[in-house]
Design a protein that fits this description.
The complex is a heterodimer of chains A (114) and B (114).
Chain A lengths: L2 E4 L3 E5 L4 E3 L1 E4 L4 E8 L5 E7 L5 E3 L5 E5 L4 E6 L8 E9 L7 E2 L3 E6 L1
Parallel strand pairs in A: 2-12
Antiparallel strand pairs in A: 1-4, 3-9, 5-6, 5-10, 7-8, 8-9, 10-11, 10-12
Chain B lengths: L4 E3 L2 E4 L5 E6 L6 E8 L3 E9 L14 E5 L5 E5 L8 E8 L8 E2 L3 E5 L1
Parallel strand pairs in B: 2-10
Antiparallel strand pairs in B: 1-3, 3-7, 4-5, 4-8, 6-7, 8-9, 8-10
Classes of the chains: A mainly beta (114), B mainly beta (114).
Chain lengths: 114, 114
């Protein structure tokens, strides 16, 4: 069965610090990869996704992620975080031969101190 | 345009009662998904519908859970004989198609079983 592992459960940063959130998945086939974000009191929304092409993908609000196939990883990065980035971040995997369902990681809560 | 809507937003029920949760997807979206979010389990896939295909029910935790999608639009998730472990936020999402397409999430229904 597929699984997704996010290494950090809670990250606390000061504004302007750099961010990297780890995500690893276990699945041997072809995948689509996603990062979703849930701001306090809001719906889950898509930050970025990878399905083919350049393994470095850019999303909204200055976020980017890099797919490293050999490491089964899809880490999320941002060079300089802002207080408004405080949210919970979820990595998700879709196995292409298993329809559209997403398997999510446990989530990482990011707190940015002003 | 209108996003995914869910009703009710909150539901408190007694153990053993049945509940129905409703999801209105974005118009024109062929894929509809149910997930649940709970403290101990994170975000779990439950079931998804894609067009006229048979639904993927592989995530339903027990036969007390069922879902239907009428006319390719509205979906209802039914939980029979609710148990305390069913307490969670039930999220619905829809997408234009399955796979690499972004899933748009609704606000969720918070279910509390007393």
């Amino acid at each position: 069965a597929q699984s997704v592992s996010q290494h950090n459960h809670h990250v606390i940063l000061s504004e302007a610090a750099s961010l990297e959130l780890g995500c690893n998945y276990s699945y041997g086939g072809t995948v689509n990869l996603f990062w979703y974000v849930q701001y306090p009191g809001q719906h889950l929304q898509l930050l970025l996704k990878y399905f083919s092409g350049d393994p470095l993908v850019k999303g909204i609000k200055g976020f980017e992620a890099e797919f490293i196939k050999s490491k089964f990883s899809f880490n999320l990065r941002k060079p300089s975080v802002q207080w408004s980035d405080t949210a919970e971040y979820f990595c998700a995997v879709n196995a292409r031969n298993q329809g559209g369902k997403l398997i999510f990681g446990q989530g990482t809560e990011l707190s940015v101190k002003p | 345009g209108a996003g995914v809507s869910q009703s009710p937003s909150n539901k408190v029920t007694e153990k053993g009662k049945d509940v129905e949760l409703r999801c209105d997807p974005i118009s024109g979206h062929t894929a509809l998904y149910w997930y649940r979010q709970s403290l101990g389990q994170g975000l779990e896939f439950l079931i998804y519908f894609q067009g006229n295909s048979a639904p993927d029910k592989s995530g339903l935790p027990s036969d007390r859970f069922s879902a239907e999608r009428t006319g390719g639009s509205v979906s209802t998730l039914t939980i029979q004989r609710t148990q305390q472990e069913d307490s969670a936020v039930y999220l619905c999402a829809s997408s234009l198609d399955q796979g690499a397409y972004e899933q748009y999430f609704g606000p969720g229904t918070r279910l509390t079983v007393t």
